[in-house]
C-alpha cells in the first residue's frame, strides 16, 4: 500500500497571478506529510492539482512513476481519495448513502454494490465513529459530524493516497484530534500515503512526521520537523518573527510568535501571578496565564519538572528544589518572597501529599496579608489527596479565609483579572 508522488516544476496562475511557481518535491511511499504555509501560499491549489480538480499550466505530477494526467478517472479514484475543507450538504442523502459513494470507482456501469462493498462501508463508518448516524440525513449533522462522514467516504474508497485539504478548519479541538489521528492510523496500519494541508503548525507536529513548507508558490523547505520548522523559515513563509522550542511536557517541537518582535520575559503587562508547584497539572495553567499576558513565577519544582522547563524557557522566576527532599529555609524564604511579590496566587489541580503540604504555610501567610488565592478544581481535591485527608482540610481552611474556588483552569484568567480590576484585552 501507499504510493510515491513526485511533483516537478508545477505552475498554476489565477487571472495571470501565479499561485504555484515551479513547486518541486517528492513524497515517499507511506509518508505522512503536512503541507504548511501562510494563507495564499498554494497549499490547497497544490492538493487540487494532485487530485486532478485543477489542471496545472506547467509541470508534471508522477504517481508511482506514472504521469497523473494519463490515468483514467476511475483508476485515479481508486488510487486517491480527497477530504475537502468544506462539506456541502445540498442533497438529502443519508450518511450511509454518502459513504457508499466511496465505492463507485469499484462498480461497473449499472452494477449495484454487493455484500463486500456494504461490509467496507460498515467498517469505514465504524472506524470514523459515524455508524450510529447511518440513517440520518447529512443535512441534519453538525460540521464536525459531516467532516467525519466525508472521512468515512474516503476510507471506503480504500485509497493508497489520502489528500486532506485543511480538514480541521472550523472544527473544535476534539474533532481536529480525531480526524488527524484517524489519518495517522490509516498511514500506520494500511500504509496509506497521506498529504494534508494544515493551517496550525503546532497541531501538525503532533500528527505528522514529514513537512513541506510553501512560500511564494515554491517549496521553501521539506523534511523532518526540525529541518523545516525553524524561526527563519517561519519568518520567510508567514512573515512574522517567531521562536521554536521543545514543549516542556511532551518534547514536541512548537512555534511561538514573538509579540512585538521579541519575547517578553516573565509574561506581558498583566498582573503578577505565582503558580504553586508544577508537573503536567500546572503546565496548562502556566501556558494559559502566559498567553493572557500575566507576569508569572513558579514553584517550588524540581529541575526535571515540566514547570521548571517552562519557567526557564520563558525567563520566569522559579524556586528549584532537589527532588524527594524537604525544602530548606532558603527555599522557603524565596518561595515566600515570590508569593508576596505576586498580585495573585494559584493552586493548580496538583496531587497533594505530605511532601508538598508545607508549601501552603507560606500561601496562608500571604492570603492573610491580602493576596488573592485561587484554588482550581476544589471539588476534585479528594481524588488527589494522598495525605490522609489533611490536604482537604487545609484547602477548606484557606477557602474559609477567603481563597477563591475556580471550577476549571480555563476560567482562571477571568477570575484573576476581575479580582484585580485588570483588562485581559
Structure description:
By secondary structure, the protein is α/β, with parallel strands linked by helices. The protein folds into two domains: 235 residues, P-loop containing nucleotide triphosphate hydrolases (Rossmann fold), CATH 3.40.50.300; 157 residues, 3-Layer(aba) Sandwich (Rossmann fold), CATH 3.40.50.720. It contains 15 helices and 18 strands. Strands 6-7-8-3-9-10 form a six-stranded mixed sheet, with helices on both faces. Strand 1 and strand 2 form a beta hairpin. Helix 12 packs parallel to helix 13. The longest helix is centred in the middle third of the chain and has 18 residues.
How is the secondary structure organized here?
Elements: E1 5-14, E2 17-27, E3 32-36, H1 43-50, E4 58-63, E5 66-67, H2 73-79, E6 80-83, H3 95-100, H4 115-128, H5 143-156, E7 161-165, H6 173-190, E8 193-197, H7 201-207, E9 210-215, E10 218-223, H8 225-228, H9 231-238, E11 242-246, E12 253-257, E13 272-276, H10 283-291, E14 295-301, H11 306-313, E15 318-320, H12 329-341, E16 344-347, H13 359-368, E17 373-376, H14 390-400, E18 404-406, H15 412-420
Parallel strand pairs: 3-8, 3-9, 6-7, 7-8, 13-14, 13-16, 14-15, 16-17, 17-18
Antiparallel strand pairs: 1-2, 1-4, 4-5, 9-10, 11-12
Helix pairs in contact: 4-5, 12-13
Question: What's this entry about, in short?
Answer:
This protein has helices spanning 43-50, 73-79, 95-100, 115-128, 143-156, 173-190, 201-207, 225-228, 231-238, 283-291, 306-313, 329-341, 359-368, 390-400, 412-420, and strands spanning 5-14, 17-27, 32-36, 58-63, 66-67, 80-83, 161-165, 193-197, 210-215, 218-223, 242-246, 253-257, 272-276, 295-301, 318-320, 344-347, 373-376, 404-406. It is of the alpha/beta class. It is elongated, with a radius of gyration of 27 Å.
Amino acid at each position: 500500500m501507499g504510493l510515491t508522488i513526485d511533483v516537478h516544476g508545477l505552475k498554476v496562475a489565477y487571472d495571470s497571478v501565479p499561485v504555484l511557481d515551479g513547486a518541486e518535491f517528492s513524497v515517499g511511499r507511506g509518508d505522512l506529510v503536512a503541507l504548511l504555509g501562510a494563507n495564499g501560499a498554494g497549499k490547497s491549489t497544490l492538493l487540487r492539482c494532485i487530485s486532478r480538480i485543477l489542471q496545472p499550466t506547467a509541470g508534471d505530477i508522477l504517481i508511482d512513476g506514472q504521469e497523473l494526467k494519463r490515468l483514467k478517472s476511475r483508476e485515479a479514484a481508486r488510487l486517491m481519495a480527497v477530504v475537502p475543507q468544506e462539506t456541502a450538504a445540498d442533497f438529502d442523502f443519508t450518511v450511509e448513502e454518502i459513504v457508499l459513494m466511496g465505492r463507485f470507482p469499484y462498480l461497473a456501469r449499472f452494477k449495484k454494490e454487493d455484500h463486500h462493498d456494504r461490509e467496507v462501508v460498515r467498517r469505514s463508518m465504524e472506524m470514523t465513529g459515524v455508524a450510529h448516524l447511518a440513517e440520518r440525513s447529512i443535512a441534519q449533522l453538525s460540521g464536525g459530524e459531516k467532516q467525519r462522514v466525508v472521512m468515512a467516504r474516503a476510507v471506503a474508497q480504500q485509497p493508497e493516497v489520502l489528500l486532506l485539504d485543511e480538514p480541521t478548519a472550523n472544527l473544535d479541538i476534539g474533532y481536529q484530534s480525531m480526524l488527524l489521528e484517524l489519518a495517522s492510523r490509516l498511514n500506520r496500519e494500511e500504509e496509506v500515503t497521506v498529504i494534508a494541508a494544515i493551517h496550525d503548525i503546532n497541531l501538525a507536529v503532533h500528527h505528522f512526521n514529514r513537512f513541506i513548507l510553501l512560500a511564494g508558490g515554491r517549496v521553501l523547505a521539506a523534511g523532518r520537523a526540525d529541518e523545516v520548522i525553524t524561526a527563519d523559515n517561519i519568518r520567510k513563509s508567514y512573515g512574522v518573527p517567531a521562536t521554536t522550542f521543545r514543549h516542556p511536557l511532551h518534547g514536541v517541537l512548537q512555534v511561538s510568535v514573538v509579540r512585538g518582535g521579541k519575547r517578553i520575559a516573565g509574561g506581558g503587562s498583566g498582573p503578577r501571578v505565582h503558580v504553586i508547584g508544577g508537573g503536567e497539572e500546572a503546565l496548562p495553567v502556566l501556558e494559559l496565564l502566559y498567553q493572557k499576558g500575566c507576569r508569572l513565577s513558579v514553584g517550588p519544582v524540581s529541575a526535571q519538572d515540566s514547570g521548571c522547563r517552562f519557567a526557564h524557557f520563558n525567563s520566569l522566576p522559579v524556586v528549584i528544589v532537589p527532588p524527594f527532599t524537604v525544602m530548606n529555609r532558603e527555599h522557603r524564604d524565596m518561595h515566600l518572597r515570590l508569593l508576596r511579590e505576586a498580585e495573585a496566587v494559584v493552586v493548580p489541580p496538583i496531587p497533594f501529599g505530605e511532601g508538598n503540604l508545607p508549601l501552603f504555610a507560606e500561601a496562608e501567610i500571604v492570603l492573610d496579608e491580602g493576596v488573592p488565592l485561587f484554588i482550581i478544581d476544589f471539588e476534585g481535591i479528594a481524588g488527589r489527596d494522598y495525605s490522609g485527608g489533611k490536604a482537604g482540610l487545609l484547602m477548606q481552611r484557606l477557602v474559609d479565609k477567603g481563597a477563591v474556588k475556580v471550577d476549571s483552569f480555563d476560567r482562571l484568567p477571568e477570575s484573576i483579572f476581575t479580582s484585580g480590576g485588570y483588562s485581559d484585552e
